[in-house]
Amino acid sequence: MASSKIEELKRKRQLKNKRKKNQVIYGGVLIFIGIIIYILLLKNNFLYSVIWIIGLLIGFTLQKSRFCFTASFRDPIMVGSSSVLKAVIIAFIISTIGFAFIQYNAIGGNTAIGYENIPGKIAPLGIHTAIGAILFGIGMVIAGGCASGTLMRIGEGFALQMVVLSGFIMGTVLGGYHFEFWDRFFISRSKAIYIPEYLGLPLTVTLQIIALCILYYVVDIYQTKNNMMSI
Amino acid sequence: MRVIEKIIKKPWPYIAGGIILALLNITLFAFSGKPWRITTGFLYWGMGILEVMGVDHLDWHYFTVNGNQLSEGKTFFNNEYTVINLSVMMGASIAAFLASEFKWKRIKNRKQLLFGLVGGVLMGYGSRLSFGCNIGAYFSAIPSFSLHGWVYAVFMFVGAWLGCKLLFKFLL
User: Fold this and answer.
1) What pLDDT, on a 0 to 100 scale, did the predictor assign at position A1?
2) CA gap A89, B22 in Å, rounded
3) What letter would DSSP give residue B161?
4) Which stretches of A106-178 are assigned E, i.e. beta strand?
5) Where are the domains of chain A?
6) Tell me: the pLDDT tens digits for B54-79?
7) Which residues make Cβ contacts (< 8 Å) with residue A99, sequence separation at least 6?
8) Domain residue extents for chain B
9) Which of A134, A182, A192 is closest, CB to CB, to B158?
10) What gap in Å lies between CA B144 and CA B142, rounded to an integer?
């Protein structure tokens, strides 16, 4: 009886391994489909075709590196590990430099040109920013994934993240529906703060990189002090 | 060949992920004029579904301010958000299949389902207030030198802390 059970388990594992080997073919099929979609987009909309390729690479990178923004905030709190957060900080240092070049290219030194003319993600700052961020922070921890993580896990076959995505869609629609209230009392009364308007682009870039380096250093010390994994 | 196999089969270090994602975001920004964003695409899908269901919503205040209206020639399904969100999912699938890591994972229990749904709604609602999610209001906002990105980071941390408390209390 026991030995037959072991035999069965062995057989199951073998089946599993076989299935594992077969998956590469599906990957190939998906790459093929991805290329076909790329060609179709290329014919109709060049920009979409570029976005398509970048998106594929983003998804690939997210999956390979298990890059998870939720973990970058959750792990330092729950288990004292900050290696993901450190990687996020490195990403910020690189993109700070890249974004600075793109913005300088577009507006030169004219940082007071008006926010709608500056490329990038510049948005009004106020109480709504804090409330939205807190809601998002709670949501991402209890749902076990943020926006990018949800997309990635759906790609990996997680059913739960399909539920998270439907919740996400409902939440955005609800937020859009209530937007008039938030806009009237908070958003329309606040303004965006583009730091280079006050400090100039070169100084802002320098200060931001210094701040990020200090943050990296602090997080690194925190990790060596609190990492429960290493105990 | 062995190097390629290693890249495809083995997981990458976090740092490599961070560096590549930053470079991809810069490339996207340089090409399309806009850095990476996700959640507005979710709103558009939701609005598209409402549209199919026959709900009239074009007079919503949201679509009259802050440049939120759909640009010329775009619909709630045909826009750059749809392109990038679908391709991110597909890219993750490709990576998972090539490493033979793809697996249909079912939902464990009702509690997990509830937490997933509520968490999703909270994230979606929050993203409207703060003009983006962890990507639009954080990953793409801090390098744009907009102060709201930093404020967002601080309060997302507060939210994550509260979320951890809830997790400890109800789920673990």
Assistant:
1) 43
2) 10
3) H
4) 124-125
5) 1-66, 67-230
6) 887 777 889 888 777 788 788 899 99
7) A120, B26, B29, B35, B143, B144, B145
8) 106-172
9) A134
10) 5
pTM for the whole structure? 0.91
Which residue does chain A place closest to B68, by CA atoms?
A176
Between residues 88 and 127 of chain A, which touch chain B (CB distance below 8 Å)? 88-92, 94-96, 98-100, 102-103, 116, 119-125
> Are the Cβ atoms of A59 and B87 closer than 8 angstroms?
yes
- Residues of B whose CB is below 8 A from A151: 38, 85, 88-89, 92
The DSSP line for A37-64 is HHHHHHHH-HHHHHHHHHHHHHHHHHHH
Mean pLDDT by 10 residues, chain B (172 residues): 86 96 97 94 94 82 82 88 97 96 90 94 96 93 96 96 90 66
CA distance, residue B121 to nearest chain A CA (Å)? 4
Average pLDDT of the residues in A24-35:
96
CB contact under 8 A, B89 and A59: yes
Summarised one tens digit per residue, pLDDT across range A196-225 is 999 999 999 999 999 999 999 999 988 877
**Residue of chain A whose alpha carbon sits nearest to that of B127:** A132
